Amino acid sequence: MNALNIPQGSTAHSAYSLRPTLPEGEERRTLAVLVRNEAGVLARVIGLFSGRGYNIESLTVSETDHASRRSRITVVTTGEPAIIEQIKAQLSRMVVVIDVHDLTMEGPSVERELALIKVACTGEARVEALRMSQVFRASVVDTTLKSFVFELTGAPDKIDAFVELMAPLGLVDVSRTGVAAIKRGPDPM
Amino acid sequence: MPREMTGAQIVVQALKDQGVDTVFGYPGGAVLPIYDEIFKQNDIKHILVRHEQGATHAAEGYARSTGKPGVVLVTSGPGATNAVTGLTDALMDSIPMIVLTGQVPTFLIGSDGFQEADTVGITRPCTKHNWLVKETDHLADTLHQAFHVAMAGRPGPVLVDIPKDVQFATGMYNSPEEAEELPYNPRREPEDDAVMAMVEMIETAERPILYTGGGVINSGDRASALLRELAEETGFPVTSTLMGLGCYPASGKLWLGMLGMHGMYEANMAMHGCDAMFCIGARFDDRITGRLDAFSPGSKKAHIDIDPSSINKNVHVDVPILGDVAETLERVLAKWRARGAQTRRDRLAGWWTQIEAWKAIKCLTYKPSKSVIKPQYALERLEALTRGRDRYITTEVGQHQMWAAQFLRFDEPKRWMTSGGLGTMGYGVPASIGVQIAHPEALVINVAGEASFMMTMQELSCAVQYMAPVKQFILNNERLGMVRQWQQLLHGERYSHSYSEALPDFVKMAEAFGCKGIRCTDPADLDDAIQEMLDYDGPVIFDCLVEKHENCFPMIPSGKAHNEMLLGEASTEGAIDVSGSVLV
Ligand SMILES: Cc1cc2nc3c(=O)[nH]c(=O)nc-3n(C[C@H](O)[C@H](O)[C@H](O)COP(=O)(O)OP(=O)(O)OC[C@H]3O[C@@H](n4cnc5c(N)ncnc54)[C@H](O)[C@@H]3O)c2cc1C
Ligand SMILES: Cc1ncc(C[n+]2csc(CCOP(=O)(O)OP(=O)(O)O)c2C)c(N)n1
């Protein structure tokens, strides 16, 4: 994908984007779902997606307001616009759901993901891996004579690109948190 | 004031405070404390069913015929899993129902304890919401919230799973007023703009149709009354889905009959040819739309629905109106009247001329017979002999269900109980009992097929126990008729397993249950036999042996458009093509 032809509704902000282009007519959207954090809430949301055949590209959840027991779920999903509208309607009618926001459509937002990336290599490859990590501003959180664990935060595309670069250098494992997203500017969500 | 009680007492008190008079249930180890409390009181009547599925359908019948939620009480494990079909049925048909299940004690949860099942896990996709209550102090609030969720917005089933130790332990009881409210309040009042857009559509429509559904019944009697006002004052034709029958009277002059796959020719043609469609509490189900890209191609569509996910789900609409039917119609009528109650009367007359021409096809015509009872004839006679009585009809699922929808006429809402969305064979027998319990004096008839009937017929033992004089009117074709019809149309007349080869003698069976059994095989005897059934003060099994190979028409074959309807004994050869044959 080229930075000049990123379709509207895509989360891709980077020319490095390695994600396959979506099928014709489909869009990628990031939804922020505010829920009451009661037992089984995540199973409910996931069950809605699997039961109705919706896609989940990424899903993160954590309690964000401990006093009122509210959790925020960030879902990255893909589908035709009518399906995405259906997903939002299905989510918003759930008893546990307080609010649903389509961050992709509601003006600019920031998306970040954290990844831990393990690379095992020696010699020239090891030097190259470390050099790359500096370019990407990844930090080294664990090191042995034969390996590194890098911590990298950024937009999903940036992490994709880094992982791709590590592959020939001895990539062992990747652990990613999934996308956390928030609206830019002073307004909530 | 909050009071201290045991969990079991809290359950019974909460039911009383919610105005529950009847519970359909079946006991077992994990609900014994609650049954003990039920034993000690007389305000709530408990109906002992013969299978938990029966409890759920009986509760659905009770709910649909009263407008109040149905309540079910069953034990853990198999009791809960047996309730799954009824929960799913209620979810599909928007029936408010509260199912209380017992659970193994909290300290055994997760240990594969005796009769343990992950009830909230199993029922999560087939309830509007469900709860596992782990502390007695939370029980009262949860129960009150469960009633609220079942009834608020689009009604539906909920489940509360109550471990046995929570039933024994003491906790504080809060009354409905004291209970913590759940912030779940779906919007009922429509936006003014949407109301205005609908009013303008009414004023400019040249070929309108009111496409009404179960949501009108869900919304309450006021919604039906307002719909009638709207229809009478505009002169717009009215059709209903299977779930909406009775919201507009079948005796009304604007009535076109049911629409959809087995609906009336005039209703479907009017849907296809209209320029303004007003969908009121219906959900564009695939039985209605047929081939989506050919569905009512030239019309502007308005849709009143309380559930945002129903709007624009299958069919894109021009005027979405999120709100309750009654609340919306009230505003629409007020606004429209205030602006002079205008319609394109000049154009409506021509539209009605067209509709009358479609009506003249007489799509329900069937070949009469003097030697065998045609199922359509049996229903025509049942209709004639019960007309004018306060009559409640339930059905099973199959051809007989469609014929009942075509040939029986409903003038009031809440008189027609059928499994529409899930199409659950076995719904009708217990549903008829639930209706009868709610309306002890009324005439309650279950129009059944013999195969469906056999799925839940053990509930007749329940009918006898509670002296519920339900009439089981079986159109016995000794076939899984609807399946046989599809095999004829789709599978080269290879009737794979659609015979009922070893049927019981239903008359003897009736007697064994303590009911009255009547068999009728000759059209000449039919009126007398039906009269005998109606006159009998007690449950009756009426075994009406009908033509075995009758097909249900009209029919829109799967994958076809409304104007490609099959009529009468038309040639059905190749009626369903390859793309249609994958549809159900
Ligand atoms: C063998 C078989 C054949 C069938 N053939 C046909 C057929 O030919 N024709 C036919 O019509 N059906 C047929 N059905 C039934 C069909 O499957 C659907 O169940 C039915 O069409 C749905 O009815 P409905 O659109 O009225 O929606 P319902 O299922 O009754 O849903 C009600 C709608 O109203 C909304 N609503 C609820 N409460 C309110 C409120 N207070 N205010 C506003 N909106 C509200 C809900 O959100 C929902 O969208 C058949 C079923 C079977 C088993
Ligand atoms: C529980 C269940 N199993 C299977 C079906 C599929 N099915 C739909 S109609 C039908 C035949 C019904 O036969 P019967 O009750 O005799 O009614 P008829 O069609 O002959 O009037 C079957 C098997 C169903 N709807 N429900």
TrEMBL record, chain A:
Dimer of large and small chains. Catalyzes the conversion of 2 pyruvate molecules into acetolactate in the first common step of the biosynthetic pathway of the branched-amino acids such as leucine, isoleucine, and valine. It catalyses: 2 pyruvate + H(+) = (2S)-2-acetolactate + CO2. Pathway: Amino-acid biosynthesis; L-valine biosynthesis; L-valine from pyruvate: step 1/4; Amino-acid biosynthesis; L-isoleucine biosynthesis; L-isoleucine from 2-oxobutanoate: step 1/4. GO terms for biological process: isoleucine biosynthetic process; L-valine biosynthetic process. One of its GO terms (cellular component) is cytosol. Its EC number is 2.2.1.6. It comes from Albimonas pacifica. This is Acetolactate synthase small subunit. It comes from the Bacteria. Residues 30-105 form the ACT domain. Belongs to the acetolactate synthase small subunit family. InterPro entries: Acetalactate_synth_ssu, Acetolactate_synth/TF_NikR_C, Acetolactate_synth_ssu_C, ACT-like_dom_sf, ACT_dom, AHAS_ACT, AHAS_small-like_ACT.
UniProtKB/TrEMBL annotation, chain B:
One of its GO terms (molecular function) is acetolactate synthase activity. Its cofactor is Mg(2+); thiamine diphosphate. Pathway: Amino-acid biosynthesis; L-isoleucine biosynthesis; L-isoleucine from 2-oxobutanoate: step 1/4; Amino-acid biosynthesis; L-valine biosynthesis; L-valine from pyruvate: step 1/4. Residues 397-544 form the Thiamine pyrophosphate enzyme TPP-binding domain. Its EC number is 2.2.1.6. It catalyses: 2 pyruvate + H(+) = (2S)-2-acetolactate + CO2. CDD domains: TPP_AHAS (cd02015), TPP_PYR_POX_like (cd07035). Pfam families: TPP_enzyme_C (PF02775), TPP_enzyme_M (PF00205), TPP_enzyme_N (PF02776). Residues 197-331 form the Thiamine pyrophosphate enzyme central domain. One of its GO terms (cellular component) is acetolactate synthase complex. GO terms for biological process: isoleucine biosynthetic process; L-valine biosynthetic process. InterPro entries: Acetolactate_synth_lsu (IPR012846), AHAS_TPP (IPR039368), DHS-like_NAD/FAD-binding_dom (IPR029035), THDP-binding (IPR029061), Thiamin_PyroP_enz_cen_dom (IPR012000), Thiamin_PyroP_enz_TPP-bd_dom (IPR012001), TPP_enz (IPR045229), TPP_enzyme_TPP-bd (IPR011766). Binds 1 Mg(2+) ion per subunit. It comes from the Bacteria. Residues 5-120 form the Thiamine pyrophosphate enzyme N-terminal TPP-binding domain. Keywords: Amino-acid biosynthesis, Branched-chain amino acid biosynthesis, Magnesium, Metal-binding, Thiamine pyrophosphate, Transferase. Belongs to the TPP enzyme family. This is Acetolactate synthase. It comes from Albimonas pacifica. The lineage of its organism: Bacteria, Pseudomonadati, Pseudomonadota, Alphaproteobacteria, Rhodobacterales.
